[in-house]
Amino acid sequence: xxxxxxxxxxxxxxxxxxxxxxxxxxxxxxxxxxxxxxxxxxxxxxxxxxxxxxxxxxxxxxxxxxxxxxxxxxxxxxxxxxxxxxxxxxxxxxxxxxxxxxxxxxxxxxxxxxxxxxxxxxxxxxxxxxxxxxxxxxxxxxxxxxxxxxxxxxxxxxxxxxxxxxxxxxxxxxxxxxxxxxxxxxxxxxxxxxxxxxxxxxxxxxxxxxxxxxxxxxxxxxxxxxxxxxxxxxxxxxxxxxxxxxxxxxxxxxxxxxxxxxxxxxxxxxxxxxxxxxxxxxxxxxxxxxxxxxxxxxxxxxxxxxxxxxxxxxxxxxxxxxxxxxxxxxxxxxxxxxxxxxxxxxxxxxxxx
Length: 353
What we know:
By secondary structure, this protein is α+β, with helices and mostly antiparallel strands. It is built from 12 helices and 10 strands.
């Protein structure tokens, strides 16, 4: 989780299930036989390399492959790892023809494998880990970025009430709620004081921009959280909905724009690569979404970095508690302080003293 460049080999593909993430495969097989339409074993289970938050498994049968996401074992922060929410949003969006996996079945009974989980379709295609898209031709680079941005505008176009997600988030200002939420999550997982976080927790709630629209918000919308068709620059499935809710679409859009100022695109020769500039990306989104140009960008950048610092602090706490789900967790946790410092810089650009 977080922006920047990931190494393909570290994150893509599967590995044997780690000892600490083992599940009762026979029990899972029995459950799927009675809850997943068209399921027929035998079942082979492996674990995806990426994903620090909800352990994710590949389930292969002779006919079909599935993906299982489950809650981590052990003590969890309140409201984190809500696999039932992920399942609900994917199921609703799939019905609308939006680019997500098919949601097959949700199990909230810990007795089956030791924690709640859900099963969705396995979507095959291309995942781009490096935002400069070094393996693509210039024409396709622009098409991939355009497809990514237009898909986000499409997500934001759905009326949550009309697609059965009217109760997927709380009413009121989204950013005010999110600042409060991440402040509480940060404090619950604080391991050592970070002065910039203290300043941000004071400044952000007093400067929240007015909210103009309400939509489904993905919460971690970036290139390597989507699968593209194998042979065309079109999004096949948007992944990783664990931070999704109802809220201000500006949260997703500002987060997407931040990728231009983070490692990866920051400093890249966008013209030579034929990748849209930040201004061009904004124009593509605003046209597709039918909205005016964005004000308050520095505030949104400060908020997004603050939230990322909060997420990474949660990973740091899980390392301390011994429950982090990924060997890269330590590396992620080290990013808390630079993220907090960068957030405060944008806050100052937005007028914080």
